Amino acid sequence: MNTHHYADYKTILSPKNGMNIYRGCTHGCIYCDSRSACYQMKHDFEDIEVKRDAVQILESQIRRKRQPCMIGTGAMCDPYIHLEEELEVTRQCLEIIERYGFGLAIQTKSARIMRDIDLLYAINANAKCVVQMTMTTFDEDLCRMIEPDVSTTAQRFEVLKIMQKAEIPTVVWLGPILPFINDTEENLRGLLDYCIDAGVRGIVNFGFGTTMREGNRDYFYKKLDEHFPADGRRPGMKQKYIEAFGNSYECRSPNHSRLWAIYRDVCGKHKIMHKISDVFGYMNRFESKQAQTSLF
Q1: CB atoms within 10 A of CB 45
Q2: Any idea what DSSP says for residue 294?
């Protein structure tokens, strides 16, 4: 059973206007970097920490800004974890962002975002709303294995298509691509076909591979033993990772160069932004679609 607790914070927005309402996650992705010990989470990862009075703090910070800007959320914790259905803190924060005419760049893996499409549409009507969807695995069965408690890739694609019809711009985060698991040309081309069909503005990809450090490596290896165990004749996937990467932070796919060439070629042909600086520049750039009101 999912649990949660509250903690006191003085701010919700970071100096770069990033917003994280929750700490922890219940989506169960086996590779999650947010489990890493460096983030100094003092509670169980599935026992969600909720920032007390997040909505009021956000409104206070927004009111103090001299001019509207883009607010980003979803980088460290998905704003549409299971608990959001009950608490609706993300929705209340979106209402504040819309009310004050700010822009939004929101990242998720969950089709729960569809609950708030009215607010996304309203934000995009006056400023800019960019919906970012993480996609890693084209094969649905494999997706359910490595991202077990969140929307499948096909369901995320349907969200992107609905956003396309609503003329809400989208960006896809492509990765992590796990060496020896989903680092295939078939997987890449399947995901890129989704991106092309959904008319995404850009793709964020930092290379084909994943990262591992204390905390998330332990959980990842535990899950590898569950899903890809040794069979008596050959070692399991965990041993393959240990032999290939040791304790390295960066675990780059041996297929990286070939996959990168395909990725760059397809994005170029279909005019999809894929340079990191271009995509982040687009998402961080506030664009007003009406004259500013006297709120400021």
Answers
A1: 19
A2: T
pLDDT by residue, tens only, the chain of 296 residues: 569 999 999 999 999 999 999 999 999 999 999 999 999 999 999 999 999 999 999 999 999 999 999 999 998 899 999 999 999 999 999 999 999 999 999 999 999 999 999 999 999 999 999 999 999 999 999 999 999 999 999 999 999 999 999 999 999 999 999 999 999 999 999 999 999 999 999 999 999 999 999 999 999 999 999 999 998 788 899 999 999 999 999 999 999 999 999 999 999 999 999 999 999 999 999 999 875 444 44
In degrees, to the nearest 5, what angle opens at C-alpha 6 toward C-alphas 5 and 9? Answer: 150
Tokens 């960006």, residue located: 171
H or E stretch at 121: helix 117-126
Where are the strands (E) in the chain, listed by range?
A: 3-7, 18-19, 22-23, 47-51, 70-73, 103-108, 129-135, 170-174, 202-204, 209-211, 250-252
Order of strands, sheet of 47-51, starting from the edge strand that comes earlier in the sequence: 3-7, 47-51, 22-23
Cα–Cα distance between 224 and 238 in angstroms, integer? 6
CA 49 to mean position of chain CA atoms: 18
Q: Provide the residue type at 192 as one letter.
A: L
To 10 degrees, what angle do helices 185-197 and 153-165 make?
Answer: 20
H helix runs in 127-184, sequence order: 140-146, 153-165
Residue 113's alpha-carbon distances to 84, 158, 204, 271, in angstroms, are 10, 12, 20, 26
Place of tokens 């796919």: 253
pTM here is 0.95
CA distance 230 to 218: 17
Tokens of 8: 């006191």
Residue type, 291: A
Let me know: does 76 contact 20? Beta carbons within 8 Å.
yes
- How wide is the angle at C-alpha 191 spanned by C-alphas 190 and 192, nearest 5°? 90
